[in-house]
Amino acid sequence: MNRFGHSFRLQIFGESHGASVGVLIDGCPAGLAIDPGSFSEDLERRRGGGQGTTPRQESDVPRILSGVFEGRTCGTPILLAFDNLRADPDAYESIRHTPRPGHADFIALKRFGGFADYRGGGIFPGG
Which residues lie across from 25 on neighbouring strands? Predict the structure, then answer.
């Protein structure tokens, strides 16, 4: 449901106001050089605070939890996590049962039968 690809596969996880969000990447060959600093330009494009984005400012520092050793891919799945350090899940309690226009709240309600994390759009933040 949250997986993309066949030979090279991506699976997203986490919720906007949960402990973290991230991606599991499978299908990378062993030996590729990985520098977490090289993600900075891509992460800057999605950083909050700009027009049409959340005002919440997160550090967006990726934690590589597996699949990389001594700066190179191991050939095993790579797990990247981004901690939500400034999440405010209580801010969404008042609109828990009211889907927001322009967001995927109603879709999540239907797709997950009312069990989705509603805080900040859950798995569909900003969407």
Answer: 10, 78
